[in-house]
Design goal:
The chain is α/β, with parallel strands linked by helices. The protein is built from eight helices and 14 strands. The strands form four sheets. A five-stranded parallel sheet has the order 2-1-3-6-7, sandwiched between helices. It has a four-stranded antiparallel sheet with strand order 8-9-10-11, with helices on one face. It starts with a strand and ends with a strand.
């Protein structure tokens, strides 16, 4: 699980990210609204939950929440020094999933994070048929069809395709892809192997593999499926 932490107090931020990483989370840390906006614009597809401080030197956690929720229904928890009802209600009305008042105990924060994540996981019902252009992926039987014709994929090719299909419109870096398919079925996957598998997928699924439209390369960033 990857958590975006936005906190301008560097001492609090340092302790918070350390505690999260001790619990097995990875973190993206920002100290300003400007840096957080850039992270939301470029990395939200890889973020599982956002922790936003309400008061930042150059902006507000409210604005960051609105931006993140506009792009994707990502879980948001506010960190606030204000415990008055007006601020709490305003944050929840903007789509935040929970809030916690500073100073807080680490165990309480972890409990709230896990509770919000469980709620989202229950809401995310997997679709039996996932579509990517004219490609249909039947997740119940693991079969893939293009324009009505079955396409035979290896287990790792299928896993890679499913990752793209479940992150439509999101840019995925090579590192993120490698993390998700690492050692699937006992196969060793390195950077060069990933290149080969993406090439094979394009050959099997694209109308013109030399000019891919289903799995596109985003120069300097990674790959994106869909719009």
């Amino acid at each position: 699980m990857n958590i975006l932490v936005v906190e301008d107090d560097r001492a609090i931020a340092s302790g918070l990210t350390y505690s999260l990483e001790q619990e097995g989370f990875t973190t993206v840390l920002c100290h300003t609204a400007k840096d957080a906006t850039a992270a939301i614009e470029g990395q939200l597809g890889a973020i599982d939950l956002c922790l936003f401080d309400l008061s930042l030197p150059d902006g507000s956690g409210y604005d960051l929440c609105a931006l993140a929720k506009k792009k994707r229904d990502v879980p948001v928890i506010f960190l606030t020094a204000f415990d008055d009802e007006v601020n709490v209600v305003m944050g929840l009305d903007m789509g935040a999933d929970d809030y916690i008042t500073k100073p807080f105990r680490v165990r309480e924060l972890m409990s709230r994070i896990n509770s919000v994540l469980r709620r989202y996981q229950r809401q995310a019902q997997p679709k039996a048929i996932v579509e990517l252009g004219d490609v249909q992926i039947n997740t119940s039987d693991g079969k893939v069809h293009k324009a009505g014709n079955e396409v035979l994929l290896t287990a790792l090719e299928y896993r890679l395709l499913l990752i793209f299909a479940n992150h439509l419109g999101q840019v995925l870096t090579r590192a993120q892809l490698l993390d998700r398919i690492w050692d699937v079925g006992g196969d060793f996957v390195n950077d060069n192997t990933l290149t080969v598998y993406i090439k094979r997928l394009r050959e099997k699924l694209e109308d013109d593999p030399a000019s891919p439209t289903l799995i596109k390369t985003v120069r300097g960033m990674g790959y994106k499926a869909g719009e």
